[in-house]
Design a protein that fits this description.
mainly alpha
Length: about 110
């Protein structure tokens, strides 16, 4: 389990280093997740240890939303001013992410 956590957090750290080193306007964890996905595609999938840890993290993913909710409450004045644009952006980006995921799935499923 420790090895799998090191792999997952290592890719996140590598993504963060790349984002900061090259001043890329993409969050480091996103870059790390992309690199991890590329490695897993080349390898043909995740090992059982990484798969188990990833499933455990995904089962508890709702805990990751607690800090966001606390942030909204902490900055309620700012959210009152910019809340509508933020909500619209979140809805549109979620719909686009779902649509692109479905499109990629359909393309991959044909192969």
């Amino acid at each position: 389990m420790i090895n799998a956590l090191v792999v997952l957090l290592g890719f996140q750290l590598a993504g963060e280093v790349v984002a900061r080193l090259f001043a890329i306007p993409i969050p480091g964890p996103v870059i790390g997740a992309g690199a991890l996905a590329a490695v897993l595609i080349v390898r043909g999938g995740a090992g059982s240890e990484v798969r188990t840890v990833a499933q455990t993290v995904l089962r508890n993913l709702s805990l990751m939303f607690v800090p966001a909710a606390v942030g909204v409450i902490e900055y309620r004045e700012v959210f009152a001013v910019y809340g509508l644009p933020v909500v619209i952006t979140l809805v549109v980006s979620t719909v686009l992410a779902l649509a692109s995921t479905a499109l990629v799935f359909r393309l991959v499923a044909r192969s």
